[in-house]
Amino acid sequence: MQDRVLPLEGIHNFRDYGGYQARGGTLRKGVLWRSGQHVGATEADLETVQGLGIGTVIDLRGDSERAAYPCLRHPEFGAAVVFEPGETASLKGAAVHEEMAREVVSERDAVNAMTALYERLPFRPVLAGTYRLYLRTLAENDHPTLLHCLAGKDRTGVAAALVHTLLGVHHDDIVADYVLTNTAGDAEARIAAGATAVRSGFGARMEDGAVRVLMGVRPEFLETAFAAIRQQYGSVEAYAEQLLGAGPDAVRAMEANLVA
Question: Matching Gene3D superfamilies, A to Z (predicted)?
Fold first, then answer.
């Protein structure tokens, strides 16, 4: 799994989420990329990313996050950047895991908060709007894409798992890709940076275990999101069609572009 990860200096959690067995073949490698934000990218990082030939960036952050953490770009960057205007987190300028840090002290508090977040995450209007653009991009293009939010783990994790599910990737592979966040790249540096952010914003009383929950992912979080999708829409396919505008024709187009 670590072979999927690009060892960049200033961009956390940058990795390929293709290469898995899917319905009718294998997801192409080198066309499905995911990461956190790029505000700390080094020149070497930008050279590496530019070399991937990315044609579209899907930015799952809200407007205030983009203003607070503007992504650095290579001088020759020419990709389209797509997003639904508005806020995808309820706390302006913060990632969704940070909005859940209020009143969290213990590890159990953090688990409960993140579970509550994932119950609602797939239905947030602005986020769903960007998910719609994401699926449309994959259906209409066969060039490499980059999917990211602030930390590249929650909004991005649900989005990647959604595409994996629609394309028939095995559940075990979906979960393995999701939890790779916990070990991808310099995870300890990412956790340390996150600890500073959540403690400065929400109090120094937060236990180390709680910080690790907020800055990581657990399989039960993803399971909670997809259980909520199935409860509300009956199936992931119905959710994609009814809320995100990606019906069977769009899924077949995604398969044609992504499965070999």
Answer: Protein tyrosine phosphatase superfamily
